[in-house]
Amino acid sequence: MSTATAYQATAPDAPLEKTTIERRELGPHDVLIDVKFAGICHSDIHTARNEWGGTTYPVVPGHEIAGIVAEVGSEVTTRKVGDRVGVGCFVDSCGKCEACQDGDEQYCTKGVVQTYNSETYEGEFTHGGYSTQIVVTERFVLGIPEGVDLDVAAPLLCAGITLYSPLKHWGAGPDKKVAIIGMGGLGHIGVKIAHALGAHVTVLSQTLSKEEDGKRLGADEYYATKDTTALKDLRGKFDLILNTVSANLPMGDYLGLLARNGTLVELGVPEKPLEVPAFNLLANRRSFAGSMVGGIAETQEMLDFCAEHHIGAEIEVIPGEKINEAYDRVVKSDVRYRFVIDTATL
Fold first, then answer.
1. CA 285 to CA 80: how far, in whole Å?
2. Which of 4, 86, 294, 343 has its C-alpha lying 20 to 30 A from 69's C-alpha?
3. What residue stretches are annotated with the Enoyl reductase (ER) domain (predicted)?
């Protein structure tokens, strides 16, 4: 066993506090990582505050992890000390089911082991990246190419792959018109990736307050959803719409923006069930789908793609002592566009 400094939540209404946690002893296939940066995802906040239910306390959040390999197990072959690496939303899967064999470990039928607040197959509970070190089985450790800095790479391990996976799965490219609902921590990276893939990119945001940013990051068009006239003019326009917000939007209106055979992909997780009018789906043979993060191979592909195209998150780096303040600011949408913890300050 080794110890690491971390920030943990002990109750839904308690602020995160500094603590010391134990990390498992390094096994033959394990990699010990010195965490350098950890992104703050809204999922962290939902979990720390038990807004989705099912949180086991105490919990150390964080599944956007970028760091340097400090030590490797005796049988590790894919990583070496000094490598730039990352860890995303999960750290184990059965490796045997059809999903795992297809490279979709995130849909493991046995149940993927998430990076935090998740029970391992051995009956322990995982703690995430708001810490100075983490031990991860080598097959779930990703290489971060030199073309992207560690701080801006950290959010790619969740936000980046959450957008890259559906963009690739539904064929975003030069012949596709893509709309992204929400210009936040997820949406802004989606704009960058969709633009790099060659798609025609439109941002649908509540207001035009981030229009300049959106177009700077690659959006071809930008519309305020509060302007009902604008939405009417966009009916039937898009091949693919990615909804990045976790609010109960009028899905019928957004399905109406899809062209024939178009797909709306839900990425956000609202607190209440979504209402999807059947006729809006039947018209033009539209589809309503969902997507989680990608598998390990696809996540590595995403990191390599982002390095090639010089894509990283737009970030605000904070010390550990400002985590609770950052949580409140995320809830208020007061960040452009992702907080990243400098773990050297823990």
1. 50
2. 294
3. 14-341
Nearest to 321 by CA among 2, 5, 16, 9: 16
Q: Using CA atoms, how far apart are residues 178 and 264, in angstroms rounded to an integer?
A: 10
With a CB cutoff of 8 Å and minimum separation 6, the contacts of 202 are 177, 178, 179, 180, 219, 220, 221, 222, 223, 234, 237, 238
Considering the domain architecture, whether residues 197 and 226 belong to the same structural domain is answered as: yes
Q: Could you report the per-residue pLDDT of 146-165, keeping only the tens digit for each?
A: 989 999 999 999 999 999 99
Statement: residue 131 has pLDDT above 90: yes
Q: Determine the Cα–Cα distance for residues 72 and 96; give it in Å rounded to an integer.
A: 24
Under the banding of pLDDT at 50, 70 and 90, the label for residue 247 is: confident
How many other CB atoms sit within 10 Å of the CB of residue 101? 11
Give the domain extent around 192.
Answer: 158-288
Q: Which amino acid is at 54?
A: G
What kind and span of H or E run contains 255? helix 251-255
Specify the DSSP element, H or E, that contains 192.
Answer: helix 187-196
Task: Kindly list the distances between the CA atom of residue 18 and the CA atoms of 4, 8, 12, 76, in Å, as whole numbers in the listed order.
Answer: 11, 7, 16, 32
